[in-house]
Each structure stands twice: as C-alpha cells, then as structure tokens.
Design a protein that fits this description.
It is a single chain. By secondary structure, this protein is of the alpha/beta class. The protein has 21 helices and ten strands. Strand 4, helix 4 and strand 5 form a beta-alpha-beta unit. The longest helix has about 40 residues.
Length: about 500
C-alpha cells in the first residue's frame, strides 16, 4: 500500500479528499497536514509516495512545498489542486516536474482517475526497481561463481569488483536431503530478514549452498553454531555448516571456498559434529588425549579402507608426533594404543615378494607380543612406522589405477546427470570408495569438487538443449536433473549470468 499526505489549510477540504479516496477504495494510507511546515515534518519521519497539496496556503505555497518535498524524497509524486486556474500556476508546476493538476471543486471521477494513474506509475517504477535489483543480483551471483571457479577476468566492471570486495566470509551449507530445491527462496529470505544476514547466495546443488557474507564474524565456529540452531528451529532440518576465516578481498574468495570444502569433508568421519571451521573449541583437557587418539585412529581406519596414502600418512604423523613427545601416559597405555594401530593396519599389509621368503609377514599375535616386550617407546614408534610405510608405498604404487576410478565417476555423472538425487555417497558406492576419499581424490585430479563437476555437466547439457531444441525450459530443467522450474532458472542464471529464455534468444544457433 502506498502512502499519501494531504496538505490543505482548510480542514473541510482535507476531510472531503479523504472521504472521496476512501469511497473509491484506492489502496492508499492517508495522513493530513494543515500547512507546509507540518507537512515537511511528517515527510521527514514518514516517507510518503504521493503529496496531494493545495496551491494557495498561508506562509508557504503548495508549489514551494512541492519543491522542498521533492528534494527531501526523490521520486515522490506530486498532485496539486487549487481553485485558481491561472496559467502561471500550471507553468510553474510543470517547471517543477509536476504533471498532475486538479481544479477545485474536486470532481470525484477525475480525482479517482488521476490517483489511479499515479498508482499505476508507482507500480511500474516499483516493478522496474525490483527487476533492476534482481538483474544486479544475478550478475553478482554470476561474478561470484566465476570468482570461486577461478575464471574471473577483466570482463567485469570496477563497480562489480568493488561489490565482490565487500564480501568478508563464506559459509558452506550441506543438507541431507534436496531441501534447497523446494525451499531455497523462503530459506534465503528468512536468513536475510530474521537473522539479518547481509549476504549473497549460490546454489551449488539441491542440497548444497554457499553464503557470501558482507559482515565479518571473528569466531566462525560460534557463528556456524548460531546459524545451525536457527535452521533447526525455523525449518526443522539438520545440516552441516562449514565457515571460513574472514577474508579481505575478492582475490581471497577462491581459497576461502577451498577451505570450507575441505572442512566439510570432516562430516564423513565425524558424524556427531555439524559445524566445522579452522578454529573450534577443544574438548575438556581431562579426556582430550583419549578423544584425540580415538579420532586419529578412526581417521586412520578410514584412510586404510579408502587406500588413501596421503590421508593415512597425515593421520599417522599426528599419532607419531604426539607420542614422540614426553608424555604422562603410562607405557601400558601407549602400547595399548599402538597395538590397536597394528591390529588395524595388519589386514592391509602387502604380501611379500614371492622370491624373498625372508620378508614374510609375522603373525599378528607375534607382532603384538613383541610390541609389549619392547621397553623403548621410540623404538615401538619406529617399528610401527616401518610397517605403515610398506602400506603407504603399496597404495602409492597403485595410484595409476586411481585415475580409472575418477574416469568411472565422471562417466557415471555424464550418464546419469538427469538423476536429481545424484550425490557424493551414490557416486562413492559406484567406485567402492568412501565419500570423503572420493571427494578429495576427485578434487585433486580434476581441480573441481564433485558438486562443481555435476553442476557443470548439467548446465552444459541445458545450454546444448536450449541452443539446439525447441523443448520448453521446464522440460529442459527436468531433463538435466532440476525438476523444480524456479530452482533450475535460478541455478542457470548463476552459472551463465542470464535466464534460460534470454540465453536461448541470444545464443541459440
């Protein structure tokens, strides 16, 4: 509803105008003022869309008021009325940009017709502003996508670069379902209006989104927990959230995106945690050592199962470094930890070379017994480290076969991109790898995350169908894995910087 201020020094005139407007059922919120000074005071606190003022008033005329109101509220619509039909008033009004002029006594039909025209004009201007803001948002989303994909070039204006430089942090959200496909618009609106987040968004997939925040949160973990609590309370759905450290400019956004992706991988082996950042609270000190050992051993077992040489080496180093340092733990406890490690690694030891019987593997019981007999902790670590090295070298020698798994994953995506439920877990099951290992391996091999690659394939297929067929846009969305029409259009605009319809008009062959 638009706001209109009625200004006239005659109370009966104001009441008459109010009555006529109310009787006509015009969608206007009305206020009144008896003179220009009172009117200006109201306008300073109440941003009216329409000023309806008499020309002849004591002290300050309606034309002077109109000029002052236009300076105070750019774009305000002015409607003047007077019992004087002299040319000079009309000419002065036109010089001030006032196009609407009504003579007293006011004819109800003329008043309704004039105000209806002004309302239509306001509607058109509002629609144009929304369209302009939406186009600016689309272009900004396209620039953000180009930025994190490291394809940003000189094609963007200095104004757009300045907009990119306003972002200070990234949050990656991962939902267990295709939540965003149906709820992304309401979800983002809720974050902006109820959490007061000044942000831009990117839909990476129906279950994964990026929030680009213009405000810096010095404690990323606490912000992530606050965001997670808000989502549970308002949408009754749990999700995983990874928050970057603050950044200082758009050039740091790609690294921040890589960081939140890497942090998010922890969800595969630490399912009890929903928020990830580079700095999160440690557990209480009295149980920290045991919890650290459990976490490291769990990560080692995961790396062993995934045949992840780099991950295995990384987590083994954490354990070795910890126990090479002086510790208050008893020897029995340390031996217990390393006996668990040997037991976990034993099934993955490579078989000895057939010609070299001297290198045969000892039974597990013998290895455990020798470990408990050894009194020097450092020698225990060296022995276990040597054992681990044989496994790591075996995994590394098999790296040439890893490419086959990546190719198989890409082939599966290229074949089944239309499946809207395509996920990391589904792809990992196809190549018999754990989801976290496949994610890291795919990113290392292709320089793209699985979500990025899936989106790229789908968008390129959509582009091809738009250029070479007459299929409806909604059918193209379904064909490339986006059954929700509005979500498909939003994702397409983010990727190509224009709507599917505009892309078809401008780029079809």
């Amino acid at each position: 509803m638009y706001k209109m201020l009625i200004v006239d020094d005659e109370r009966t005139e104001r009441e008459c105008i109010r009555y006529l407007i109310t009787s006509a059922g015009l969608p206007l919120e009305l206020r009144e003022a008896a003179d220009a000074a009172c009117a200006l005071q109201i306008l300073k606190e109440w941003q009216a869309h329409i000023l309806f003022t008499d020309v002849q008033m004591p002290v300050t005329t309606g034309l002077t008021l109109a000029k002052q109101a236009a300076e105070l509220i750019p774009g305000i619509k002015i409607l003047i009325f007077s019992s004087y039909a002299e040319f000079e008033y009309a000419r002065t009004a036109m010089a001030l940009g006032i196009e609407n002029y009504i003579l007293k006594p006011v004819v109800p039909h003329e008043l309704e017709k004039t105000l209806s025209g002004i309302i239509r004009q306001l509607d058109e201007e509002h629609h144009f502003r929304l369209l302009k803001d939406r186009q600016k948002s689309y272009l900004l989303q396209y620039a953000l996508h180009s930025c994190i994909s490291k394809t940003l070039s000189g094609k963007f204006t200095p104004e757009m670069i300045n907009e990119l430089n306003r972002f200070r942090q990234i949050a990656l959200l991962d939902f267990p379902t295709l939540f965003l496909e149906e709820h992304y618009a309401a979800f983002y609106e809720s974050l902006r209006n109820e959490m007061n987040l000044d942000m831009e968004t990117l839909n990476l997939s129906p279950n994964q989104a990026l929030l680009f925040l213009r405000k810096e949160y010095a404690d990323p973990y606490s912000f992530g927990c606050l965001l997670h609590s808000f989502i549970i309370e308002n949408f009754q759905i749990k999700c995983y959230i990874s928050v970057s450290q603050p950044v200082t400019g758009y050039s740091a956004l790609p690294d921040a995106y890589t960081a939140v992706e890497q942090q998010m991988e922890q969800r595969f082996w630490d399912s009890k945690k929903n928020v990830f950042s580079s700095a999160f609270p440690e557990k209480p000190s009295q149980s920290r050592d045991k919890l650290d050992d459990d976490s490291i051993l769990a990560a080692i077992r995961s790396s062993l199962s995934a045949k992840d040489a780099s991950g295995l080496q990384k987590n083994l180093n954490l354990l070795f470094q910890k126990y090479r340092m002086p510790t208050n733990q008893s020897q029995i406890f340390v031996k217990f930890v390393f006996s668990n490690l040997v037991t976990a690694m034993y099934p993955f030891l490579p078989p000895p070379v057939a010609e070299d019987r001297s290198d045969s593997i000892q039974p597990l019981e013998t290895l455990i017994t020798e470990l408990y007999i050894q009194q020097d902790i450092l020698k225990i670590i060296d022995t276990v480290q040597t054992m681990a090295q044989t496994i790591i070298q075996n995994y590394e020698s098999a790296d040439s076969n890893i490419r086959k798994e990546i190719l198989a994953t890409q082939e599966y995506i290229n074949k089944y991109y239309s499946n809207s439920s395509l996920s990391v877990e589904m792809l990992a099951s196809q190549v018999y790898l754990t989801p976290d290992y496949l994610s890291r391996l795919f990113k290392k091999s292709t320089k793209k995350s699985l979500s990025q690659y899936i989106r790229q394939v789908r968008m390129e297929k959509a582009s091809e169908l738009l250029r070479t067929t007459n299929l409806k846009v909604i059918d193209i969305g379904i064909a490339v894995g986006y059954p929700n029409y509005s979500y498909f259009c939003q994702s397409f605009r983010e990727y190509y910087g224009k709507s599917p319809e505009k892309y078809r008009r401008e780029d079809s062959v």
